[in-house]
Amino acid sequence: MGEIMEQTVFSVSDINREVKMFLEGTNTFKNIFIEGELSNITYYRSGHLYFTLKDASASVKCAIFRYKYRGVPEDLKEGDLVKIRGSVTLYEANGSYQIVADFLEKSNSLGLLYEKMEMLKKLYFEKGYFSDEIKKQLPKLPINIGVVTADTGAAIRDIINTTHKRFPNVNIYLYPAKVQGEGAAREVSAGIEFFNRMNGEKQLEIDTLIVGRGGGSIEDLWAFNEEAVIEAIYKSEIPVISAVGHEIDNLLSDLVADKRAATPTQAAEILIPEKEKLTDKLESKKNLLSKLLLNRVTMMKKELEYRKNNYYIKNFGNILDNKKFDLMEKEQKLSRELRRIVQKSREQLDYRKQRFDRINLQKIILSEKENLKKKSAELNQIMLEFFENRKNELKYKKARLSKYSVSDILKQGYTITRKNGKIVKRGIELSKEDKLEIEFLDVKKKVVVK
């Protein structure tokens, strides 16, 4: 038959899948930072970015899906030195590995700031600071608004102009604070705490806070990523709108606030309804309510007039007297029927009592009890004989079947050889290089005919 060799054979798909599972299953290759030089940059209309990252002696293929939503620059060019963050994976179709990234920045730009922001974002996400379940509802029509921003910037002017244009009756209270540079985070958080304290002491009745500033670079906006500001917004009893003018979507103040606005102007538009539109809406509802009430009154008048002319209302006294007489008559009939039923029940009870007195119930019960015991013993004996017969019959059938079982054949020293899942009966069925499976009593072995 030739030499028999044991071997484990993988398909190409199997080995690629195993390698992919290994790479994606270990933390060593997740969320790693890699620095290198860009080449083969391709922006696709689908929103995906593909490129190669290389250094002096090696290169690796990379991809960023939906890059526009991840703050990836759109002016990347060949040779740019960049840093990415991503995870290693394997493309099963051709067996090549690549980096799927979610962050890219040009080197020597703002890497440390973004890393710190990602660390804080993860920390506060795990604490539950960003949960929608804890966000407070904004009032429908706030009367007193607290604003924490610079007193000389465009943000406060935009908020005042937009608010009073939409609803002049709203009061605006400003807490002037630095919004960039050293001490900015401390002053912004102090402003939030100030308005909450004034509300608690009943000195003010602030309905909503707007915390923000105009646009700027990430360094200028960094105060709104600081822990002091995040904690102050989270602990605020007053609803907070984060209104920092910026294009990126990951300032931490936006995530923890009860509402996010892209600009201070938009914050005022979100919060304050237009007085004219609100007045028109109220007037429309007032007119609708008046019509509904008028229709209801008209219908009730008609209903009242109808009831006034109703026969039963006009003749209520006579109808009531007739009902009283009917009730008295029915009461007399009921009383007579009850007496009859009681008398009949007494007679039946006396009759049954006399019958039971003539029967010795105790003897009947004892006799029936003895019969029941006897029949129970007979039934038990029949069941025991039945099960014993079935047991012997099964033993006999098992003994006959065991002569033909595979395990008994193998116990006698024989083996079973299969080719493509079918049992080989004659040697002529075999050829060189045929793959066989030989089944022994304790194990199955795969062999190749040499």
Structure, described:
- This protein has 13 helices and 14 strands.
- Among the domains are: 12-109, Nucleic acid-binding proteins (OB fold (Dihydrolipoamide Acetyltransferase, E2P), Beta Barrel); 136-273, Rossmann fold (3-Layer(aba) Sandwich), CATH 3.40.50.960; 409-448, no CATH class.
- It is 48% helix and 20% strand.
- A hairpin with a 4-residue loop joins strand 2 and strand 3 (59-64).
Quick take:
The chain is an alpha/beta fold and 450 residues long. It has helices at 12-25, 111-127, 154-166, 184-200, 218-221, 227-235, 252-256, 264-271, 275-308, 311-314, 316-357, 361-402, 406-411, and strands at residues 32-43, 49-54, 59-64, 81-91, 96-106, 144-149, 171-176, 208-213, 240-244, 259-261, 416-419, 422-423, 435-439, 444-448.
At CATH level 3, the topology of the domain at 136-273 is Rossmann fold
As a percent range, the share of helical residues equals 40-55%
| CATH class wording of the domain at 136-273 | Alpha Beta
Number of strands: 14
CATH architectural arrangement of the domain at 136-273: 3-Layer(aba) Sandwich
Low-confidence stretches: none
Distance between the termini: 7 Å
Shape: flat
Strand content: 15-25%
**Can you identify the CATH superfamily of the domain at 136-273?**
Lumazine/riboflavin synthase
* Helix and strand element order: HEEEEEHEHEHEHHEHEHHHHHHEEEE
> What class, by secondary structure content?
alpha/beta
Number of helices, where a helix is a run of at least 4 consecutive DSSP H or I residues: 13
User: Overall pLDDT, averaged?
Assistant: 84
The largest sheet, given as strand count, sense and whether it forms a barrel, is: 5 strands, mixed, barrel
Give the C-alpha Rg: 46 Å
Strand order of the largest sheet: 1-2-3-5-4
